[in-house]
Amino acid sequence: MLKDLFFYIWYDEMGSGWLLLTIILFLFSMSFLIYKLARIKSTNSQFCKKHFICLGIIITICYQIIPVSIDFIANAISVSNINKAIKFEKVAIKTSMIPWQKGGYYCKLANLYLLNKDYNEMYNTYDTAYKYLKSYKCPCWGISYLSFYTKGDYDTAIEIAKNWRVGNAPFQFIANCYLMKNDIQNAELYINKAIQQREFYLNYAAKAYILKITGKKSESITYYKKAIDLCRNEKEKNRVKRTYENFVENENIRLALLRKQQGLK
User: Fold this and answer.
1) Helical packing angle, 201-213 and 217-230, nearest 10°
2) What pLDDT does 55 receive?
3) What's the rounded Cα separation, in Å, for the pair 47 and 69?
4) Which parts of the chain sit beneath pLDDT 50?
5) Dist. CA 84–CA 33, nearest whole Å
6) Which of 55, 110, 147, 210 could form a disulfide with 125 if both were Cys (CB 3.0 to 4.6 A apart)?
7) For residues 131 and 3, is the Cβ–Cβ distance under 8 A?
8) Do 227 and 201 form a contact (C-beta atoms < 8 A)?
């Protein structure tokens, strides 16, 4: 329950909700501290047990600004100096007190390794993130479903993609995962959702392929023609043709090449 509440506040891949809450609580705590100190001085009161407890709570809340600020700096400099950003993110992890927050920052660190094209370290970091989060349903996983898809871990990719909170769920991607798992029924279910979401040439191409391999030749040709009509150039038409010809075979070839480029087995 507390974990669900934490990630409800965390909100998205970047943890923008947690950043905003931390800033608000920090400003409120500092204002309250200044007020209490001024009141104690004006009334010539003595510090008592209640004051020390209150001070301890304020210090704990204010401490949270440290990992949050360091993480913010890591995000800010990631465009100009990725190696420095990685170092800052590691410090943010070390200074975090909440295990789920550490897990979220490990996801961010993995994304930095992705930008740095250090793919083996990226997957190792995702493994560490899972040890803290113990679930792939947390929003901090973001678009890491693409990395798990590349690795061939379709079940994890599906779980992360289904819990995508920013914008529309990637139904076409989920359909592709099910196709790679040879789960045609779920693939068709999600490609239908994708078509309802958007009339896109790749959505129609995937639908045409599914209809073809399930023996519905005439219907598949109809969707194939719709896909071609939505294409804006020859490159898009070639993608439709490859999808319709044999999506799974061509995708396996593409992913094998990508894994080789990334130095993965």
Assistant:
1) 160
2) 76
3) 31
4) none
5) 35
6) 110
7) no
8) yes
Q: How far is CA 153 from CA 76, 95, 142, 150, 158, in A?
A: 31, 31, 16, 8, 9
- Whether the CB-CB separation of 134 and 122 falls below 8 Å is answered with no
Handedness of CA 194, 195, 199, 200 (dihedral sign): positive
Q: Is the dihedral of CA 125, 130, 131, 132 positive or negative?
A: positive
Of the candidates 59, 142, 57, 154, the residue with the CA atom closest to the CA atom of residue 106: 142
8 A C-beta contact, residue 67 and residue 99:
no
In the numeric block, which tokens belong to residue 104?
């979220």
Task: Look at residue 44 in the predicted model and tell me its pLDDT.
Answer: 74
User: d(Cα 74, Cα 76) in Å, to the nearest integer?
Assistant: 5
pLDDT at 51: 63
Give me the pLDDT at residue 265, please.
Answer: 66
Q: What residues contact residue 34 under an 8 Å CB cut-off, 6+ apart?
A: none
Helices (H) and strands (E) in the chain, counts: 14, 0
Q: Which residue type sits at 170? A: P
Token pair for 201: 């040439």
Q: What is the pLDDT of residue 229?
A: 96
Nearest CA-CA partner of 172 in 226, 236, 243, 222 = 243
The confidence score (pLDDT) of residue 53 equals 76
The residue type found at 10 is: W
